[in-house]
Design a protein that fits this description.
mainly beta; 24-stranded mixed sheet; tonb box; TonB-dependent receptor family protein; cell outer membrane; signal; Beta-barrel_TonB_sf
């Protein structure tokens, strides 16, 4: 008989025996009646009843991974990581290396400006603006246009987030396109009944850093709200690297009853930064503060409104719906570097890309049987994304000045629809199986009325549509106390972008739209909490990525976008976390000393290519190892002190694995290995005052990890901050 079935019977038998014995002892012997003869005593076999406290193990695992059924989403059998930001010191200035220090395998390519964020994973695609990683905020895509232009130019400040969720493999089946994982940023939201409070955080640091983050939140009856306002500025490490960012958020929640929630989310981000320009390797060696483009600048404005509703209908039914509207304006002023210090360029290009997007996400969940759950839903999305350029003789032309000569004008649109379903089946012997299916439809269109003057091709009038079915299967098994095996195989894909279908800056031959890139991801592993304070996760993975899209010359002047080859990424990813004080009495008083370490070992290769000699080469940004580690001492409501390190192996920055340029324009084929150490701490003096301090790149490592054919970008050297948070 299964242990869980035998346990209630054993408990019932023990209780019945105890009750019978107590009742027998209380039976009175009538007066004058002879006492009964002594009865023989029979010793029954001893029964040891040991309860399996599964709730304790679940609570321990949820400190590191997502719930198996999270609302209307099923994540069991998918490898997940959760970073709880309240368990570590504050992250200032959106330092992504610190924010993602506990995210195994996520590679951050440093760019010290607040207008571009570069992430990649397991060698799948260039990290340029995180094009191959789906980044979301509360399940809503943060990309410029989720389908036609999946780039990341706006990121909410870490102070406004409660946690970061990382979902591998089956993320395409949960959220939608992109072969790499989804990174979901979860916004801070107050609980119902939260008393009114106000706080302000004031931080200063080197390179002219100033950061302020201010919050009002509370609740009254059925209403709950949170509002924040933030401003961050920095002078940067080079001339024309100064930047500033403004952020405002409003969350309003209404709960008419225990089963229904309505909410409104408003997010606004505005950032601008100078673009000091990229350097050749000889320039970087001689003067890492060199600024070849002192007149270039970037601007990003992003506003998003989300209306949401959740209902519990009883009998295991739950509905979650989100309707969102987003507007992003991406503008830049860019001119080529000067031929000589005394000879600046004659003109600059003013560029403006607008993204007006809206979407609907509807999901239902039905809990049935003993731990089973069925989910289904649909996502609809539309983007209207005009793209314009002007030439101007004024190298410092204002971003809203339209007096220049029109250089490019395109009307672009994207449409996307999907339906999906998953079910978790709970079988005997603690086995669970999750089949998944998703059907997606994409359409992108470009209509051009002005093309760059140096091109000879016809105007672009292209529209392409794709229908893509996706399937997945997950299998897992709970064993021992708090351990679980998991296996997941899932399909993914990368939508056809505007630039894939019709690059505005090349002589593309019409009618050569490539097929979308597709992936098949396999992952098998085990994770759990076998001991108090210990969490582990170890897995092996294999990803086949087909139909990579690249530009190919067909003659001296014309290029087409074609599927050039396939890659394979396979390796090992492991994570270990141990709280040394968890088994002691100190943990009951809120004190923890936690060490964590993760490593991703990657072997990525081209397995097919139309380019001679490419098979067998290593794709760009696929380091053989990426290791992360740290030590955090935390006393609840008093102290958080953390030391973290990130170490990456040498990696190629382009798929050819070859150097670029020569002489003054030389760029080595490989980015050198580097290790960066950060330290940060929060000290709660009393319930109203908290001190903040930190040092990034403690050893002042001089390195770079972001390269393009136009040059490299130096990473930040040692930087520090200090500040105070006041709370009413």
């Amino acid at each position: 008989m299964p242990r869980r079935a035998a346990l209630p019977l054993a408990l019932a038998a023990a209780l019945a025996l105890a009750a019978f014995t107590a009742a027998a002892r209380q039976v009175a012997v009538p007066t004058g009646t002879a006492a009964p003869a002594p009865q023989s005593i029979t010793n029954l076999p001893r029964i040891d009843v040991r309860a399996y406290d599964w709730r304790r193990y679940v609570a321990a695992k949820l400190k590191h991974q997502m719930a198996e059924v999270a609302g209307t989403k099923i994540t069991v059998t998918k490898k997940t990581t959760v970073i709880h930001l309240d368990l570590q010191p504050a992250v200032i200035g959106n330092n992504l290396q610190q924010l993602l220090a506990r995210a195994p395998g996520v590679l951050v390519s440093q760019q010290p400006t607040p207008t571009q964020f570069n992430l990649s994973y397991r060698g799948l695609g260039n990290p340029q603006e995180s094009e191959y990683v789906l980044v979301m905020q509360d399940g809503i895509p943060l990309e410029s246009d989720w389908i036609g232009f999946p780039t990341l130019y706006a990121m909410p400040l870490a102070q406004s987030l409660s946690e970061v969720q990382l979902i591998r493999g089956g993320s395409s089946l949960l959220y939608g396109p992109e072969p790499a994982p989804v990174i979901n940023l979860v916004t801070q939201r107050p609980q119902p009944g939260t008393p009114f409070s106000a706080s302000t955080e004031q931080v200063v640091g080197n390179h002219g850093l100033y950061s302020t983050y201010n919050v009002l939140e509370g609740s009254h009856g059925a209403w709950t709200f949170r509002a924040d306002a933030a401003y961050v500025r920095s002078d940067g490490t080079r001339p024309n690297a100064q930047s500033q960012m403004r952020q405002g958020d409003l969350y309003l929640e209404y709960r008419p009853g225990d089963k229904n929630v309505w909410w409104l989310d408003l997010h606004a981000i505005a950032a601008d930064s100078g673009d000091a320009g990229r350097l050749s390797y000889p320039q970087w060696q001689s003067d890492p503060r060199a600024t070849p483009t002192p007149w270039n600048r970037d601007w990003v404005d992003r506003d998003q409104l989300v209306l949401g509703h959740t209902s519990e209908f009883g009998d295991g039914w739950r509905l979650t719906g989100k309707l969102w509207f987003a507007y992003q304006d991406l503008a830049s002023r860019a001119a080529n570097g000067a031929l000589a210090p005394q000879l600046p360029p004659a003109s600059t290009t003013l560029q403006d890309e607008q993204f007006r997007t809206q979407g609907l996400d509807l999901r239902v969940r039905k809990a049935w049987g003993h731990g089973n759950a069925f989910t289904a839903g649909t996502v609809l999305f539309h983007g209207n994304d005009p793209f314009r350029q002007w030439s101007s003789p004024d190298l410092y032309v204002d971003r809203f000045d339209r007096s220049g000569t029109p250089r490019l004008r395109q009307a672009r649109s994207s449409d996307y629809a999907s339906v999906f379903a998953e079910n978790v089946f709970r079988l005997p012997h603690e086995i669970h199986i999750v089949p998944s299916v998703r059907l997606e439809r994409e359409r992108v269109a470009v209509d051009e009325t002005v093309r760059p003057p140096f091109l000879s091709r016809p105007l672009i009038h292209e529209a392409d549509a794709r229908t893509v079915p996706l399937f997945g299967l997950g299998i897992g098994n709970d064993f021992g106390h708090g351990n679980e095996t998991y296996f997941n195989v899932s399909q993914g894909w990368r939508p056809l972008r505007y630039f894939d279908m019709a690059s505005p800056f090349a002589n593309i031959v019409p009618g050569h739209a490539p097929d979308p890139s597709k992936s098949l991801s396999w992952e098998a592993g085990v994770h759990g909490v076998p001991l108090t304070g210990l969490y582990y996760d170890a897995s092996v993975f294999w990803i086949d990525f087909k139909n990579r899209i690249e530009a190919q010359h067909i003659n001296a002047t014309d290029v087409i976008e074609v599927n050039t080859g396939d890659t394979r990424s396979r390796g090992f990813e492991g994570e270990l976390d141990y709280d040394f004080l968890a088994p002691t009495a100190l943990a009951a008083r809120g004190e923890h000393l936690e060490a964590f370490a993760s490593v991703s070992l990657l072997a990525a290769r081209f397995t097919a290519s139309t380019i001679p000699g490419q098979v067998g080469k290593v794709p760009a940004y696929a380091p053989r190892y990426l290791a992360k580690a740290g030590l955090t001492w935390r006393v609840e409501q008093r102290v958080k002190l953390s030391l973290t390190a990130v170490s990456a192996a040498a990696q190629y920055w382009q798929d050819s694995d070859q150097s670029f340029g020569s002489g003054a324009t030389y760029l080595p084929a490989r980015i050198s290995a580097y290790t960066v150490v950060d330290v940060a701490g929060d000290w709660q003096l009393n319930p109203h005052v908290k001190l903040l301090a930190g040092i990034s790149n403690l050893a002042d490592r001089r390195y770079y990890d972001r390269v393009w054919q136009t040059g490299l970008e130096p990473a930040y050297g040692r930087s520090w901050y200090t500040g105070v948070q006041l709370k009413l």
